[in-house]
Structure to design on (730 residues):
């Protein structure tokens, strides 16, 4: 077993550049490479022609214990690409366009295969960027078959000529190799889409969802529309009279500074989505270089960072001489891993944070990540835009998203002249030349030759000889979870829900970041209270992501997103709810504990795309620990539905055209869901009746999609099922 130590990069990028085989050679037996991973962006490897997708951590844990994975045979969407990208258009612009098209088409639970002559016109790194964002457009995977471009990339990244020849021969012999120079056979798909690459324009996505694409030329108008519109995915409801206010303050108490609505306070080149792509990384370096030469400088109160997904990016940025210009603009390398994209940007400087909170400023973050859901990037940035690395640099220099790059200057040169976006933006030829000269096979070979040696901190970790883990009751990072308390060898059988209260009533697009945040721990939260009671100073809170080994903290962090919108609160935003029996407004954790102590079940009502985003198993483990027995939604994202089943929570879908609002459900009712007492009387996709104490009743579809999932439910969850299976063999 190869263990890649922490600090080596982001796993998906390491897989792309080093680990993936494409074709396995197991002592002369050849077969296609495939992978499942515990992160939804495992799909990045589909760009290399390897079938791969993400699963929930719960499902992966079961697989590691020998449990096979089950899935419903997916439909396959054929996405035809034609033409070429225009000058000045990046891979990020392409992927944001593809994401919008596919999210609109509806591809949850489906495979997407890209085909057509246009595929041959885009680089392997560009394909990997598109494949990486499969979770954002909802697909199980976005697949690119192997062709000559794939083989060239394998050689570039240090795979041997012999290995590459074997891969090509095997795939050609099995009709799995595509040669775009030859006439193509028409393929049969479940449905079809087409995009002319020449129609793609520079763009960003935001301010709150990855598929809300905004062409760059429309950005200023769209921003003003967001300020005007009511609070929602495209709205902040800022009164007209305050939209132009300027907040002046002293940065660090010394330097005069100012913020407005739309001021950029975080600019981050981050995430495997883009940092694996030399064209956009070196493009960012060229933008920084041109800006430096003209005398432009990022304002010091903009928090800038650069976190490549592997050490290779550092090598070619340094080899090209462009890293020094990025450093001058504040984009110093902060590490190799997930940073701002997952909420690990760290605190803003105190005077900046105070200026935002005390004046209710809608501050902005611009990042080259894949997700920008509310509360994910940073608690104080309500507007978060996904953009290419070169655009991240451009917006950092401009200092605001409230700008028309075509008409307004981005800054003033050292000669006192206005500098426009076009003056610092590199041509495709400039980018291609610097890529050609500075991205070299030896960089990949030397980086990955050293990867297995680890680093001093990792190598010096003490490892106990015992096979059983010794729990430390004083640890606030790792705590023994209660999943198996009271467990017997006999499965408990299916559980219905009797007179349950509604813990939370949600609208559409509640993401796993809303359900189980990974970012900073708010000082007023139940998790913070728990830590302080155990002597942990607020400066040592760290993040939910870093403390995910402690169920006590993660249960308290469930539904703790500060931007969550619960209909029970009548428009109030934040991590609270109404305890229905008493009418009290409490934190979600406190309300859940009150229900549990009274022996009362709870359910959740939700709209479309419940559980979209990360494949975060705590988004199912947390609700289970809070006592949630069922979630009734219009639709679920694939991985989250699977995770709910894995934790014994019943996923139910409203019938088409119905939801809580159309049925007149307020969330103040009590809900009864009668299920058969024997699992043999249940079947996948069965309709059942939900009754309320007000006399209303409605039909839902139970989203156990396979017989295997019914078996998990019968056992109380997937882990209980696997443990009973293993124990029975002893």
């Amino acid at each position: 077993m190869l263990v890649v130590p922490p600090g080596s990069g982001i796993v998906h990028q390491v897989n792309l550049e080093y680990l993936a085989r494409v074709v396995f050679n197991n002592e002369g037996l050849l077969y296609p490479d495939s992978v499942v991973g515990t992160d939804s962006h495992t799909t990045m490897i589909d760009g290399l022609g390897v079938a791969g997708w993400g699963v929930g951590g719960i499902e992966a844990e079961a697989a590691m214990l020998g449990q096979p994975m089950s899935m419903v045979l997916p439909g396959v969407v054929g996405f035809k690409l034609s033409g070429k990208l225009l000058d000045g258009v990046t891979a990020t612009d392409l992927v944001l366009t593809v994401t919008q098209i596919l999210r609109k088409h509806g591809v949850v639970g489906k495979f997407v295969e890209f085909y057509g002559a246009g595929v041959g016109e885009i680089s392997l790194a560009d394909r990997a960027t598109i494949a990486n964002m499969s979770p954002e457009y909802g697909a199980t995977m976005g697949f690119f078959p192997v062709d000559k471009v794939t083989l060239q990339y394998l050689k570039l990244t240090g795979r041997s000529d012999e290995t590459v020849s074997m891969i090509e021969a095997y795939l050609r012999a099995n009709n799995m190799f595509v040669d775009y120079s030859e006439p193509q056979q028409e393929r049969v798909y479940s449905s079809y889409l087409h995009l002319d690459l020449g129609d793609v324009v520079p763009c960003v996505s935001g301010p709150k969802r990855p598929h809300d694409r905004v062409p760059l030329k429309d950005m200023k108008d769209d921003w003003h529309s967001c300020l005007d519109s009511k609070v929602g995915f495209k709205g902040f409801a800022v009164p007209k009279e305050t939209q132009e206010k300027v907040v002046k303050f002293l940065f660090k108490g010394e330097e005069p500074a100012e913020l407005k609505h739309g001021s950029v306070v975080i600019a981050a080149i981050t995430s495997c989505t883009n940092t694996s792509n030399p064209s956009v990384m070196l493009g960012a370096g060229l933008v920084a270089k041109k800006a430096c030469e003209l005398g432009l400088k990022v304002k010091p109160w903009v928090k800038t960072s650069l976190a490549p997904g592997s050490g290779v990016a550092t090598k070619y940025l340094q080899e090209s001489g462009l890293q020094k210009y990025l450093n001058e603009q504040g984009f110093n390398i902060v590490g190799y891993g997930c940073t701002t994209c997952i909420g690990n940007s760290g605190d803003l400087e105190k005077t900046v944070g105070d200026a935002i909170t005390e004046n209710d400023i809608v501050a902005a973050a611009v990042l080259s990540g894949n997700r920008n859901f509310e509360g994910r990037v940073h608690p104080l940035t309500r507007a978060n835009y996904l953009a290419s690395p070169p655009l991240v640099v451009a917006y950092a220099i401009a200092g605001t998203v409230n700008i028309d790059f075509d008409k307004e200057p981005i800054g003033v040169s050292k000669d006192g002249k206005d500098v426009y976006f076009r003056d610092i933006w590199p041509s495709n030829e400039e980018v291609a030349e610097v890529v050609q000269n500075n991205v070299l096979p030896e960089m990949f070979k030397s980086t990955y030759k050293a990867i297995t040696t680890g680093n001093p901190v990792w190598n010096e970790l003490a490892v106990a000889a015992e096979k059983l883990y010794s729990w430390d009751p004083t640890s606030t990072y790792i705590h023994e979870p209660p999943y198996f308390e009271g467990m017997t060898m006999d499965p408990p059988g299916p559980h219905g829900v009797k007179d349950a209260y509604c813990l939370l009533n949600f609208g559409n697009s509640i993401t796993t970041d809303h359900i189980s945040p990974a970012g900073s721990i708010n000082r007023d939260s139940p998790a913070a209270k728990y830590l302080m009671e155990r002597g942990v100073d607020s400066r040592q809170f760290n993040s939910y992501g870093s403390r995910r080994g402690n169920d006590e903290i993660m249960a308290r962090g469930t539904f703790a997103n500060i931007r969550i919108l619960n209909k029970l609160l009548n428009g109030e935003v934040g991590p609270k709810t109404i305890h229905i029996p008493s009418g009290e407004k409490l934190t979600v954790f406190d309300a859940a504990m009150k229900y549990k102590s009274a022996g009362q079940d709870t359910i959740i009502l939700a709209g479309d795309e419940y559980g979209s985003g990360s494949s975060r198993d705590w988004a199912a483990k947390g609700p289970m620990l809070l006592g949630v027995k069922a979630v009734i939604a219009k639709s679920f994202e694939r991985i989250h539905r699977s995770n709910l089943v894995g934790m014994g929570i019943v996923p139910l879908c409203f019938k088409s055209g119905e939801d809580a609002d159309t049925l007149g459900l307020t969330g103040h009712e009590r809900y009864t869901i009668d299920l058969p007492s024997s699992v043999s009387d249940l079947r996948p996709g069965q309709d059942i009746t939900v009754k309320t104490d007000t006399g209303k009743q409605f039909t839902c579809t139970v989203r156990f999609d396979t017989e295997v999932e019914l078996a998990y439910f019968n056992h109380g969850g997937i882990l209980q099922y696997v443990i009973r299976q293993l124990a029975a063999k002893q």
About this structure: The radius of gyration is 26 Å. The first helix runs from residue 11 to 19. The chain has a mean pLDDT of 94.
